[in-house]
Task: structure prediction
Amino acid sequence: MRARLDALDELELEVRAQLAALPEARGGELAASGFRTLARLRRERAELRRSFGLLPAKPAAGPAEREPDLGSLRESLSDRAFAYADAVAEAADAAPVGLLVEHLRVVAQLLAVVELWIDEEGRRE
Amino acid sequence: MSERPSRRQFCLELARLAGATPAALAVLGGRPAAAADATDFAVLFAAINMESQAIDLYNRGLERGFFADRSAQQAADFRGDHLGHRDTQIEIARERGGPLPPEPARYPYTPGDDPRAWIREAQRMEQAAIDAYSGVLRRIGDRDQRLVAAYILVDEVRHATAWSAALGLRLY
Result:
């Protein structure tokens, strides 16, 4: 479970960097909402680590490898949603599964919003 | 027109089957099954049934032209996802040596002649699937089956969000 939680923390850094790079005029509200959500999920994952007796999350790794654009944000969110699915599969106890499922839903919804945005931009061109 | 099932009724189907039918499935294909196995098969069969209903709703809406333009493309894409979900879970049931999965089911409600009503129904149906998969994930004993259900849940959230956007609902 520790490896799964570490992976989720690393992927969050990538998503945060991508959100921060969104243009303020069109993506400001989404980014603000995304940051609030990510902060909540991080707090709850930290609680989960404590409940398992695991060490706190590692400090930030290097900068994100992907270019900051909508396509990369979609990829980062997709990776994150499926990383949550992997964590759900690994967590056998009901309580962590419940929390991780809720997080999966939140991240998948953010992913869907970005997919719709990309689709809309594509139809405009 | 048939009466539309309440959302609660629809999404409780999976949880009910997961919790109430292990006794009925205690003997699978003539061999005794552990309670955990029986729960997993009950979840699988209820999920296959729900996926069939989703395919049917999209099939009928597309055939009758109630999903148009962008919605038609989305409905076709989502139908493809549900076909994949159904076939994957049928394959899991086969690999695990369970009884034959249920026959394809029809969606129990026809939304009428307003295209927006079809989108609303699709949104309700996808939301019910989210609630159902979320509810049963903690009860699935087999790790691989849990992984498949979690992956499917990602798709169901994407579908429901797309229909919520089409209906002008607030997303964040």
